[in-house]
Amino acid sequence: MTYSLAGNLLVASTMVTETVFARGVCLMMQHDDGGAIAVMLNRPIWPPPAELIQLITGGDLPEPQDSKPGPKLSRLDFGTVESLPNAPAAGTPPAGFLHFGGPLSGPVLAIHGSLTLAEAQTGTGIYVAAQKNHLEQLIREKISDYRLIIGHAGWASGQLEAEIDAGLWHVLPATADLVFGGAADLWPVLIRRATATSLARWIGAPDNPDAMSLN
Questions:
Q1: Considering the domain 8-185, what is its CATH architecture?
Q2: Is-contact 148 108, C-beta < 8 A?
Q3: For a 10 Å CB count at each end of the chain, is N or C smaller?
């Protein structure tokens, strides 16, 4: 492999019909000869983050307020929850809301904009934290915009490249404005721009950043 897609966004094309990834937007965390890892950005889930805050800080779990019914997170399973359901289809909660990152289990992590709490970087001005003290500080002090994420998506060696070549995914650079912008529905915002970028790459034409504004 001569390049890495870490720090980019994967935008699902209209060819993707699998429920988990349809209309999905993923942030690439790692991409090398061994495979690829990403987290989904547009799958908010219930219950709201107040419950996760209690898990991180060790307090009692409150009854969710002004939210739809959803599964409880177990203290015993904190950081290793196998899967969580998709969020309601309409609207996207604030950036700090808990998000379903993908069907593979993994630690609770945050993507955020604070260099002082950065444990890794993926994209311009986008950092990663998974240590409990960093998560707690982000939540308590609201140092920067952040998204709490549980679970991730993974691809075996060569699998993601094959899916991109087959037209299943479009690739865009990840920026803090896109990741933390709070768009009501991220996929429609990105798909036209992403499609134009992929088309330019396929036909060897210069990419036109203004194509996103075209009808």
A1: 3-Layer(aba) Sandwich (3.40)
A2: yes
A3: C
